[in-house]
Prior knowledge:
Strand content: 15-25%
Largest sheet: 4 strands, mixed
Order of helices and strands: HEEEEHEHEHE
Shape: globular
Distance between the termini: 26 Å
Radius of gyration: 16 Å
Structural class: alpha/beta
Helix content: 25-40%
Number of helices: 4
Number of strands: 7
Amino acid sequence: MVEANPSFKKNLTDIANKxxxxxxxQVNVFDPNTAYMCEGKSTFYxxxxxxxxxxxxxxxxxxxxxxxGAGAFTKVSxxxxxxxxxxxxxVMPEDFVIIDMDIEGAEFDILPCLARSPAAExxxxxxxxxxxxxxxxxxxxxxxxxxxxxTLQRKGVIFADYAWGIKY
Length: 168
């Protein structure tokens, strides 16, 4: 599990400990980290009014996200985890890999990179909330995104239908 919001660390660690105690497979929590296409550091905008809450908290790497400039947010620096490297180092070809991605616009940066990578063949299904394309840090175009999704589909990645009802 990769989560950038440090408010979730305890809850996610508790969940991982419960799962790890019941199964032989291990669940790792990368928190606070944000999934991205490279490793480094990123500014992350957190809803400071709901800090510590477990319910959905608005947060994003993008300062152009509609809520990031609302004044109730704090900026924190979090490490980024390279999703492709994470796949290479933790997944075997026979594993069934589901990616559940809700990363507030960074999907437009990651998907084209993943589509060009051999690691894409390690992914079986992808569930993704699609946000405003203007939240992309790399200014990905609609064509880039459509090409990436089509490439991933040709490589066998199944996308949940609900993600594509949203315009990008």
